[in-house]
Design a protein that fits this description.
heterodimer; A: 223 residues; mainly alpha; B: 224 residues; alpha/beta; Rossmann fold; six-stranded mixed sheet; four-stranded antiparallel sheet; globular
Amino acid sequence: MDFAPFLLSFKLAGLTTLILFTLSLPFAWWLSQTDSKSKPILEAITALPIVLPPSVLGFYILVVLSPHSAVGGFFEDIFGIKLVFSFTGLVVASCFYSLPFMVQPLQNGFESLNKHMLEASYLAGKSKLQTIWHVALPNMKPALITALIITFAHTVGEFGVVLMVGGSIPNETKVASVAIYEMVEVMEYGKAHIYSGLMVAMSFVVLLLVYIFNHKQKKIGIV
Amino acid sequence: MLNMDIHKTLHGSQGKMSLDVKLDILQGEFVVLMGESGSGKTTLLRILAGLEKAKGDVQVEGHSWKDVPTQHRGIGFVFQDYALFENMSVEENLLFVNDDTSLAKELLELTELSGLSSRNVKSLSGGQKQRVSLCRAMMNRPKLLLMDEPLSALDEKMQAILQREIAILHKTFGTTTIMVSHDAASAYALADRVVVMEQGKIIKDGSKDEVLQKSTRISYSLVD
C-alpha cells in the first residue's frame, strides 16, 4: 500500500490549519468586537464555502489562480510560483474552503466571553494582543480546539475543490480523497476500502476526542 | 484632584436621556454615587475608566484624560459580576496586573484571603470572588478606584465583611474612590461624600450627613 496520499493530506491539512489560525484570529476577534455595518457582509462571505458546491468554489479558485489571471500571473511572473496543479495552489484553495470552519468557532468563542473580563484586562494595562493571548484564548478552549480540529479534519476530507485546483499528481496534489476516487474508477475496491476505512476511523477518533474534551471543559466550568 | 465635565446621550429604557455631570473630587475622597437604576451611574464610571466615549473632559491632577486609553489611566475597577480571569488562580489574577508579589501578599492578608492564594477563582464563593476582585483592582496602586455596586450580589453577612475590607483598604492606601451603591447603609458607613443622580443629572451632592438620614435604628435613606 502506498500511503503517500495520506501523508500529503496531513501535510496539506496541517499547513492550512496553521495559516488559517494565524489569519483568522485577528479577523474573528474583530468580527466579535465590532458594530460595523460591514460585519454581516463579511460574515456572509466567510460562510459561503459551507453552502457553495465544491465545484463552484473550485471553478472560481481555478480561474483566479490560473496563470492567465491577474493574481495567478502575478505570482508566476514575480515569484515563479505556480498556483494551479501544484501543492502551493492546494494550500491556497484549502485556506478558502476551510475558512468558515476556523473563523466561526473562534468568533463564537470570543463572543461568549464575559465582556467585563476583557475590560478588566485593559484596566490592568494589557494590550489587545496580550488580552487575546492571556485572557481570551485560555477561557475559550473548547471553541479553540473545535476551530483547530474541525479545520484540520475538514481539509483532510475535502475532495471537489482539491480535484479541480490540484488535479491528481502523485506526491504533489494526489491527496487521500482523490486517491480513493481513482481506485473506485479503476474498480480497485479492496484498496478503496482500506483507504476509506482509515479515513472513517481517523475522522471518528478526532471528532470523539473533540467532544470528550469539550464535555470535560463544560464539566469543570470552562465554556 | 479629579475634575470631570461629561456629556453623553444615553438610550435607556425610558428613551433618550442626556448625561450631564460636572463634579470635582478631592484627593483621597470616598464618594458614593447613588440613584435609581438607569440614572447613568455605571455609564459615568465606564467613561471615567475610558471604557466608553463621551463629550467633555476628565482631568486628573490637571492632566486631561481625553486621549489617554484605558490601559494608561492606572485605574482600579471592581465590577458587579467580579470579572475575574477564570483561567488563573487567586494570586495569578493579582500578579497579572502587576508582578509585585509583596503587594499581592499584603492585599491578600488584609482581606484574609492568604489561604486561598493558589485556588482557582472558579472554585470561590461570590463573596470571596468579590474580595479577590477588590485586591486585583488595588494591584496597580491606582490613583482612582471605581466600584460598580460591589456589594449588591452578596448576602448581608458577606456585604458586612466586604464593607469592612473596603474601609481597611481605603484607610491603608488612601485611594480616591467612587463607589456606585443602592444601599444607603453601606453608603453611610463608607462615604465621605454622597452624590445622588437622577436622569443623568446630579440632584444632590454633599456630606453623608447632609444627603442621608437615619430612617430606622439600623438603616438610612436619602433626605427628602
